[in-house]
Amino acid sequence: MTSDPTAAFTPPRPLAADDDTAAFDCGRDALNHWFRRHAWRNQELGVSRTTVICDAEAGSIVGYVSLSTAQVERVWLPKAQQRNRPDPLPAILLGQLAVDLRWQGQGIAQSLMFYALTTAVRLSDQVGCFCVLTHPLDDDVRALYAAFGFEDLPFDPARSMAVRIADLVRSGFGAADWACISRLTGFNAA
């Protein structure tokens, strides 16, 4: 491997029917199971879109993220954000994000997060969207999302987290392109 461990990765691309999802192992059974059994079928049905980053040399999947549409019940928001809002509010669901065990700790999760949030902001230019919503599996995952500005929805019994599109735009996500993401994360998509 070269001195830049990310130089051998492909840019993000849609999951393909012939991708080897069975070889992917992130160390979490629920995420592995979803990826192997549901990612492609959901893609075919138009239920969600899964994007992968691969090892450019071997072709194996390094990590993935899935996005779909969702809604947020107004009553789940902090009281100050409930006033004069429709019910429910439109959202983008960041449903799954995982990195293969062989590639963890190299910034792949952060790169996939930047990709997902940039995609959500770009989509919000065309379709109304209040926030990006996610359902973290545990406190470690919650910490990753919190680092990107996600906050707990205080009245949601499922303990969801969300980041408002307006906050992402203020943080610069709307102007980001893949070259900018590469500079911010050190991830080289070339």
| Coarse shape | globular
Any idea how many domains? 1
Number of helices: 6
Mean pLDDT: 83
Q: Give the helices and strands as they follow along the chain.
A: EHEEHEHEHEEHH
Q: Quaternary arrangement of the chains shown?
A: single chain
- Write down the CATH class: Alpha Beta
Placed side by side, the strands forming the largest sheet appear as 1-2-3-4-5-7-6
Straight-line N-to-C gap: 15 Å
Total E-strand runs: 7
What are the segments in which pLDDT stays under 50 over at least 5 consecutive residues?
183-190
CATH topology: Aminopeptidase
Write the CATH architecture name.
3-Layer(aba) Sandwich
Taking the sheet with the most strands, its summary is: 7 strands, mixed
Note the beta-strand portion: 15-25%
Helix/strand-derived category reads alpha+beta
The CATH homologous superfamily is termed: Gcn5-related N-acetyltransferase (GNAT)
Rounded to the nearest angstrom, the radius of gyration is 17 Å
